[in-house]
Amino acid sequence: MPLPGGAARRVSGLLPVFPWDRLEPYKATAAEHPDGIVDLSVGTPVDPVPELVQNALTAAADSPGYPTVWGTPALRDALVGWSERRLGASGLTHRHVLPLVGSKELVASLPTQLGLGPGDRVAYPRLAYPTYEVGARLARAEHTVYDDPWELDPAGLKLLWLNSPSNPTGRVLTVAELRRTVGWAREHGVLLVSDECYLELGWEAEPVSVLHPDVCDGVYDGLVAVHSLSKRSNLAGYRAAFLAGDPAVLGELLEIRKHSGLMVPAPVQAATAAALADTAHVEQQRARYAARRSALRGALEACGFRIEHSEASLYLWATRDEPCWETVADLAEHGVLVAPGEFYGAAGARFVRIALTATDERISAAVQRLKA
Ligand SMILES: Cc1ncc(COP(=O)(O)O)c(C=O)c1O
């Protein structure tokens, strides 16, 4: 149907079909279970927002004026401080950080904000968070997937996404792999953007940032890391995330984002600063996920699943060596909803992604159902 004014659906027409709609019939089946659905299909936090973060939010509730896109000096201090402490980066200034309204908006709009377009290429992992492709499509740039980034053809390549720990596989890139990728990107003048939003959720591997000196030698040219508080601090509902890295890239984005009004609300800025100053709640949340992960993993393996990678992140990447929709359908019959691996690329067609983001009660219900 044409839009008012005769405009065609020129932008939404660029985008793939929203995949989650295809899961709806399975959700309906799972919801018929007498003890209710266990929804492990999406990675949305279910545990409380830490009290100290709620307190910081409410203390800043009286914020009548416009916030700034770059954030308050207190927020920038917090972003720099956390990046230095947690990522091991050194020598960062306020020009090395930039707040985001959650990281998804950046992933979807970065190619457009960088002015990429037809003839430019954006690359991301073969199995990946679908929004990297969406961002390339919205800019009308080309997109390409890789197994090893240094095998890519650099012609026309302007933006290279890394994602470690990976959604959906939970794979963690080693320092050697990160170093080699940084060297390759620098050699070919490609901007390297590393999505590290699961960095605090390493289980059998210690995720390392692209900003760590062992990876980048303390030189941030052409390097940007993406961080989010959604998973680390149960703040998906607040939309709290940020970039750290090359001041030249961040300065350009700041100009564009100022004109676009991409401001983090002032109370969320205050809450973000409070959350980054605290590690106790991160440890507490990690312990919850570790227990859920171990219970689910044991139950899945006992009933014939093989788990690949999954050494970090909020997911188990599992297969029964059958088409993913068969696994989705069978688990839905047991009242458990999981995501088909195909959502993350054709290479995932025989895997499902199982999220750890359900309450302890729902995880034990899933474990009981898998045993049955
Ligand atoms: C790899 C990856 N990047 C970015 C995001 C977006 O997170 P947020 O917008 O909540 O910061 C997600 C969310 O699931 C993700 O899995």
UniProtKB/TrEMBL annotation:
Could you tell me the keywords of this UniProt record? Aminotransferase, Transferase
Which Pfam family, giving just one, matches this sequence? Aminotran_1_2
What InterPro entries is this protein classified in? Aminotransferase_I/II_large, LL-DAP_aminotransferase, NHTrfase_class1_PyrdxlP-BS, OxyQ, PyrdxlP-dep_Trfase, PyrdxlP-dep_Trfase_major, PyrdxlP-dep_Trfase_small
Q: Which cofactor does it need?
A: pyridoxal 5'-phosphate
Q: What class of enzyme is it?
A: transferase
* E.C. number(s) listed in UniProt: 2.6.1.-
Segments forming domain Aminotransferase class I/classII large: 37-370
Q: Which GO terms describe its molecular function?
A: succinyldiaminopimelate transaminase activity
What protein family is recorded?
Answer: Belongs to the class-I pyridoxal-phosphate-dependent aminotransferase family.
Protein name from the UniProt record: Aminotransferase
Source organism per UniProt? Streptacidiphilus cavernicola
